[in-house]
Amino acid sequence: MDWVFWVIVAGIALAIIVAFASIYFGRDRAAVERRKSAEVEQGTSGQPDSGPGDTAVLTPPAEQPAEVEPSPGEVIPLEPPAPELEVPEPPASRMVRLRRKLASSNNALARALSELLSADKIDDDTWDDFESTLITSDLGVGPSTELVEKLRSKLAVEGISDPAAAREVLRSELIELVDPGMDRELNLTHRAGAPAIIMLVGVNGTGKTTTVGKLGRMLVSQDKSVLFGAADTFRAAAAEQLGTWGERVGVKTVRGEEGADPASVAFNAVDEGVKGEVDVVLVDTAGRLHTKVGLMDELGKVKRVIEKKAPVGEVLLVIDATTGQNGLIQARIFAEVVDITGIVLTKLDGSAKGGIVVQVQRELGVPVKFIGLGEGPDDLAPFDAEQFVDGLLGE
Fold this sequence. Notes:
single chain, 13 helices
């Protein structure tokens, strides 16, 4: 019967369809299960890779400290540490230390004095040799002859033969030559409302800028407030050099552009000193060739311009002690242009000739106020006649 045939065909077709469906959906379900299992494993390892509609198991990350976000526009300043200021050596101990340097140095004058006092017999030849050494030590012909005559007279008349007694006579006569009665105090008097003004002058290479720095240190050690005026505008490094000296002890430096008018810079420094109510203004000037009239005239202009603001109390002439007679020529020319009130002798060490102290004082009629015996920052000391002579004698 036809209908029975078609029923059998339909049943067979349905069985085939069910079998194919079971195979297809069974395979798809297994794939889904495998994929879910892999996602779970990834979630537990902390590396999720979730797709749309999938759920991943995530391990919570470790807690991190919260970062503080600065406010917009907020600037946190980084303050550099304040520079530690140096403490300069007080002047009271400087000359004692420098005297020891002078005594230990091998200068010609010290050797001549030692040979004279240690001689078994002092005859005319001995005195002639001694006088020649004094002259070559820049003591000068006049002072040398004067000293020898006094010594010969005292040793002969008083019959002194003991070396210790002879040394004491020599010490006394040398101190008299150096003239302990001269006023060697630094003049720091000033008008009310204005600082004391000190100018330093000299030729190139005498150590003038360095002397300004060292003198400033000395005044700071005496509890004086100090300001530097860098009026040497011809030498490019002068202002920087002076500024470095000032920074080490807390002293301000007033400077101008390279090649600026020195008188203008000096005036501005004094004006700044008045406004800041400082005790002392030290003005460094450019090194001058004493043979150049124009430069020397300009130095006089610097002093006149300063004095429109405040009187200049000191003009210190810086002389390199090793220059000998040439230093004296310089001193004469400078004294004609500005009123020199005192002398600073630099480089008065073992290579120098100590006799120049006597000669330069007699030449200018002004005292040696400071001496330098070395390159250290505190190797500048107030001059003391007795300690200087004791240094020459090796005491």
